[in-house]
Prior knowledge:
Keywords: Amino-acid biosynthesis, ATP-binding, Diaminopimelate biosynthesis, Kinase, Lysine biosynthesis, Nucleotide-binding, Repeat, Transferase. It holds the Pfam family ACT_9. It is an enzyme of class 2 (transferase). Its EC number is 2.7.2.4. The protein folds into two domains: about 5-175, Carbamate kinase, CATH 3.40.1160.10; about 245-410, 2-Layer Sandwich (VC0802-like), CATH 3.30.2130.10. Helices cover about 35% and strands about 25% of the residues. It is built from twelve helices and 18 strands. It has helices spanning about 15-30, 45-55, 65-85, 120-125, 155-165, 195-205, 215-220, 275-285, 315-325, 325-330, 355-365, 390-400; strands at about 5-10, 35-40, 90-95, 100-105, 115, 130-135, 135-140, 145, 170-175, 195, 225-230, 240, 255-270, 295, 305-310, 330-345, 370-375, 380-385. A hairpin with a 5-residue loop joins strand 14 (about 295) and strand 15. Helix 1 crosses helix 3, helix 2 (about 45-55) runs antiparallel to helix 3 (about 65-85) and helix 6 (about 195-205) packs antiparallel against helix 7. The protein is globular, with a radius of gyration of 23 Å. Magnesium ion binds near residues 9, 151 and 154.
Amino acid sequence: MGLIVQKFGGTSVGSVEKIRNAASRTAEEWKNGNQVVVVVSAMGKTTDHLVDMANEISEAPSKREMDMLLTTGEQITIALYAMALAQNGIEAISFTGWQAGVKTEAIHGNARIIDIETDRISKELSAGKVVIVAGFQGVTADGDITTLGRGGSDTTAVALAAALKADKCDIYTDVTGVFTTDPRIVKSARKLLNVSYDEMLELANLGAGVLHPRAVEFAKNYGLRLEVRSSMEKESGTIIEEENEMEQNLIVRGVAFEDQITRVSVLGVSTSLKGLSTIFSTLAQNHINVDIIVQSRTEAGAANISFSIKSTNLPETLDVLESNKESLNYQSIESETGLAKVSIVGSGMVSNPGVAAKMFEVLEENGIQVKMVSTSEIKVSTVVPEKQMVNAVESLHEAFELFSGTVKTN
Length: 410
Ligand code: ADP
Ligand code: ASP
Ligand code: MG
């Protein structure tokens, strides 16, 4: 007997029928004598619909009220899920994030969990109940409701599993595991049986939406083994855990991608020592996340600084740069939208210097223009025209033979 945390994403609880199906997976574990905590997302596209309604009412809705609105989605699912279990003769109790003791920092829309007071959950588990917790939500020290960022239910599940010292954390979703790339876009994508924390963290951060990056961070910090698996098929999924030696031979393990990227260039920046830091600290103070950064010198001795952002942040970014023009001391700003980021990830890259060269070769051969590049020990990211994104992903997936030899088969 052990303690299991299960998480079911939006598609897996997208209808009453699907909630019944998910609840049967919970019932199975419970009937085997385990204690079970279930974390659920909002049903289907509920969160998207709530966002659309808010945007219909206001161009810039208050972030506090957005959190109040979006957390209602998960609250629907927890109640229905508890009812479905009761229907199976299993005693269950549902909790919102705040009832479950999920404490977060006071940042609306993208809060980090700082602590989970698990007393109430533990008490109900001891009483023999299955506990159902609303994902993606928490409460600040002042009692305000927060959300953890889109896709954040994964993080609720992993943080709860860590806090409760669970024996297992299963992330049930609409694919059978983590693939070499998004299986909905590239049909030849293959399921990986094992992925290391570091590789998964890069994949998630670089756009593989199958797991929320902070969930992977938590799992890594607490050494928690995760399994990503299907809520419909009974087959085993992908294990995310500490890297083993065999995997270090696998140079490229996956291709991740993200559309709606914009390049912003700040031209003619004075090259005084603080020029660069002032630009990025000003953006950071305004909570604008900057990704790839490239700097070049002009003939006149000034600097041109380009960086990539999510396109949705463009108006705010331009606003911040323009309203601080004097202190930032630059000549002009340019921006290019309609871009995408395509990245290859693999922990074996660190000892294989030719990987980036091969990536650029493949992109060149396929007529794909590389606008920006960034590398780390285990990834190479490129910014390319959005129209060429899928072509780039497919070409790289094929060139690095992700559909055949490099997939570990145990
Ligand atoms: P959930 O609602 O269960 O949280 P998500 O939509 O957030 O599900 O995540 C699952 C989706 O992630 C899949 O449907 C798939 O399209 C996408 N995805 C992107 N990259 C990958 C990948 N490398 N492996 C598996 N799925 C991926
Ligand atoms: N319902 C939230 C979203 O759609 C959280 C989640 O599904 O993980 O982003
Ligand atoms: Mg998700």
